[in-house]
Amino acid sequence: MNAAESHNTQKIRTAVCGALGRMGREVVAAVLADPQLELVGVADFNAASSDLHLNIPIEASLADMLTRAKPEVCVDFTHPSEVFANAEMMLSAGCRPVIGTTGLTPEQLSLLEQKAEALNLSVLVIPNFALGAVLMMKFAEMASQYFEHAEIIELHHNQKADAPSGTALITAEKMEKARKMAGQPVFGLDNIQETHVQAGARGTVREDSGLHIHSVRLPGLVAHQEVIFGAPGQLLTLRHDSFDRKSFMPGVCLAVKKALGIKGLIYGLDSLL
């Protein structure tokens, strides 16, 4: 067995940041259940109230966990206000971030990309880990070449910290790219000039494309999105629903396994398929 083959037989040293959150708990369980992954570290600022009952310590300090556990990859499901600093810290420790938290700005993504490339590491930013959501985005991109009118409705639980969702934003970007390729970059070009009696009644409007995004936040929801296309005499509706956070776990484990063979920034699960 040569050195490369020997490395392939080793489990990937994996950590989870935000391990006590709803997504973090699912990630911990998924890593423990995957024979190719080894859970070596967990971090959460609520470490003192941990009920995970693991055979490794759960640490309040991400820095301490990275120093002790030396993970190769760390999955981050924390808060938009924390994730950029977390990712920088992981890269500085020689660890590859797999980020499921949305809300990073284009400027922050660019800085992470530069740092990852300089350190010969990878950083994976995945707005949605569900395979069905990736397919929904792909179908929306295809349909945008043929439909001049479309709107996005995204629905999430009422504890989600950012709006619109990362899935809605990446869907919009793909749809806009398809419209440009079709030679007609603006959606709803023949819509009448509206009078908005109340601000926000038509959701968020993408400045360059005129594409509307509507965000719904209610308890009982997990992660859901519709893209509705309209044309004279017809509607095309694409919808994806995640009813359980387990739907994201195959994508999370896939991203962890791919992270070691990639350099620089990867944005979106479709880049790994």
Short description:
With 273 residues, this protein is an alpha/beta fold. It has 8 helices and 12 strands.
Write a structural description:
The longest helix is centred in the middle third of the chain and has 16 residues, at 166-181. The chain has two domains: 3-125 and 246-272, NAD(P)-binding Rossmann-like Domain (Rossmann fold), CATH 3.40.50.720; 131-242, Dihydrodipicolinate Reductase, domain 2 (2-Layer Sandwich). It has helices at residues 3-8, 22-33, 62-69, 80-92, 106-118, 131-143, 166-181, 249-259; strands at 12-17, 37-43, 58-59, 73-76, 96-99, 122-125, 149-156, 204-205, 212-217, 223-231, 234-242, 264-267. The protein is built from eight helices and twelve strands. β4, α4 (80-92) and β5 form a beta-alpha-beta unit. The chain is 34% helix and 24% strand. It has a seven-stranded parallel sheet with strand order 3-2-1-4-5-6-12, sandwiched between helices. With 273 residues, it is an alpha/beta fold. α2 (22-33) packs across α8, α4 (80-92) runs parallel beside α5 and α6 (131-143) runs parallel beside α7 (166-181). The protein is elongated and about 60 Å long.
Labels describing this entry:
five-stranded mixed sheet; 24% strand; 12 strands; alpha/beta; Rossmann fold; Dihydrodipicolinate Reductase, domain 2; seven-stranded parallel sheet; disordered N terminus; single chain; 2 domains
By CATH, the superfamily of the largest domain comes out as NAD(P)-binding Rossmann-like Domain
Strand arrangement across the biggest beta sheet: 3-2-1-4-5-6-12
Rg over CA atoms, rounded to whole Å, is: 20 Å
| CATH fold descriptor of the largest domain | Rossmann fold
